[in-house]
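Supplementary Methods. Inverse-folding protocol.

Structures were first reduced to a discrete structure-token string of length 198. This string, shown here, constituted the complete conditioning input.
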């Protein structure tokens, strides 16, 4: 099997694992969903699962990443604000039951913790590339954390409760409150390249 065929096969296996995991969460809580049960349903061994994912939280993070990447690609000619709205609609609202299930888990590796950590990393890397610099100032790092924590908590709250606001209103709140330090930088294309490279 050549390199590209092997990569396609690996991606198919990852998608099989993620899709099966997503289906299983419809009837099983995240806490009670065991890797051994997932592997059995996928007809793979545990070694194959751990080749692709470190644990179920890594799987969840990969799914979020892929969902956002697909949404960003589908709307690449839109403004950053519109892309945020489409992403929130397509990733979180259209899959609300799934995200409510995974957000309910409150442990050491919660989705919210993973989401915050990954988003900070993507924003920092994106800004480093956009600014063509070797490091970010402590001030800018603090601005990123301020926005990521607030945005992540707001999204989690919106997913878990009927807040009475639409996906468009949520993206509008987030967009209008992104610091000028972040909004004024041309990060749209850099962000997409960063997500595609992972």
């Amino acid at each position: 099997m050549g390199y590209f065929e092997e990569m396609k096969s690996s991606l198919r296996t990852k998608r099989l694992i993620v899709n099966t995991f997503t289906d299983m969460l419809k009837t099983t809580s995240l806490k009670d969903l065991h890797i051994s049960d997932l592997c059995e349903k996928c007809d793979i061994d545990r070694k194959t699962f751990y080749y692709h994912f470190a644990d179920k939280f890594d799987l969840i993070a990969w799914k979020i990443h892929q969902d956002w990447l697909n949404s960003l690609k589908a709307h690449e000619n839109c403004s950053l604000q519109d892309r945020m709205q489409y992403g929130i609609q397509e990733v979180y609202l259209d899959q609300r039951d799934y995200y409510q299930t995974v957000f309910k888990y409150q442990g050491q590796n919660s989705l919210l913790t993973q989401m915050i950590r990954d988003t900070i990393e993507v924003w920092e890397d994106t800004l480093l590339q956009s600014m063509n610099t070797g490091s970010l100032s402590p001030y800018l790092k603090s601005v990123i954390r301020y926005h990521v924590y607030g945005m992540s908590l707001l999204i989690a709250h919106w997913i878990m409760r009927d807040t009475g606001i639409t996906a468009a209103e949520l993206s509008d709140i987030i967009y209008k409150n992104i610091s000028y330090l972040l909004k004024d930088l041309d990060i749209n294309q850099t962000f997409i390249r960063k997500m595609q490279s992972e």
